[in-house]
Amino acid sequence: MPTITEVRPIHVNRILYVSVETDDGLYGLGESGAWAYQEATAEVVKTFAEYLVGQDPRKIEHHWQFMYRAYHFRGAVIMGALSAIDIALWDLAGKRLGVPVHELLGGAARERVRVYKHVAGATVDELVEDCKGAQSEGYTAVGHLSPFLDIDRNESLESSNAQYISEAVNVLKTLRAEVGDGLDLCVELHRRLSISESITFAHAVADVMPMFIEDPVRPDNFDSMTHVASSVPVPVATGERLHTPEEFQMLLSRYPLAYTRISVCLAGGITGAMKIAAIAESVGSKVVPHNPLSPVSTAACLQVSSAVSNLGIMELPDHSGVSATERYTASADGKRQEFDQTAMLSPIPAAAGGYAPVPSGPGLGIELDFKLADRIPVTRVETLSRLGADGAVVDQ
Q: Looking at the whole model, is its pTM more than 0.85?
């Protein structure tokens, strides 16, 4: 019987990996999605390690239930730790059997995985240029697309009004006119709007035919989100901030949202993601894995995306520099630690013609250069919320 000998958090820049090692010389690699709170998550990993060391790594479901149900508490930090460990255990299982993880999940449900590329711009012209660049690379969809544009979080926002909404609507109309109908637009609203503003916005952009609008309101209240979804003529996506199967069940039982965003590295790892995907499938909702992290997250998301029958599309960030969470949340370029993720991880999952191949290597199919990772300094995420013109906190 193989035995777990070490469970080790590995903190790199703003990324938290977890390595689970066994007495037969193998290791599995996972990543936490609680990206703003990795120091706290690492401590939870150490707590779980006290249980896991000496255990059989093949009992993945049992370990998931043991950690998930051990005490009274839930939360993103706890689930980020559980998720990273779970992904590492699946990686180990695939490596031990010499097969990709998706074969252990029932086999590939498709031959390739459709992905959307991250786009951004501080101006309309920059956003148009980025979208056209994605088209030239063969992508048929783009995402992380903010019609409010990407500006520094230290810049305050005016209170929402007709001009605020109409300018965002015009950004999407301009984009559609520039790129044509061959590019799907996955619109990221980042909780910017109220219920009434969301409904107004969605009706105004219906003729742009967005693939979906994501998180138009804060996802904390399921009733608010489903009220918007049931009141608008465009598909709505949400779920990236949820972290238990029960939350998704309660959300989707209120209204079958078109797209369910699963954070594989936050919502229970591969085990949790498959549970949530089944809940979504039961109400006709398509899965869109949330993936703003490193190539380890991409590798885990690809395994899930390959196996589920109800995949909508998968998020794919640019891995040639720092993670997307750092690019989009650091307050200024000078506070971003530039390093090439491709230097410490290989092979990097990539797309061609708007699709990523179904993984074929054992486990996740990705390896970490531990020595290089150990040399990259840890960066603590600063607490930074955007303020409105009146000084009150607004969502971003």
A: yes
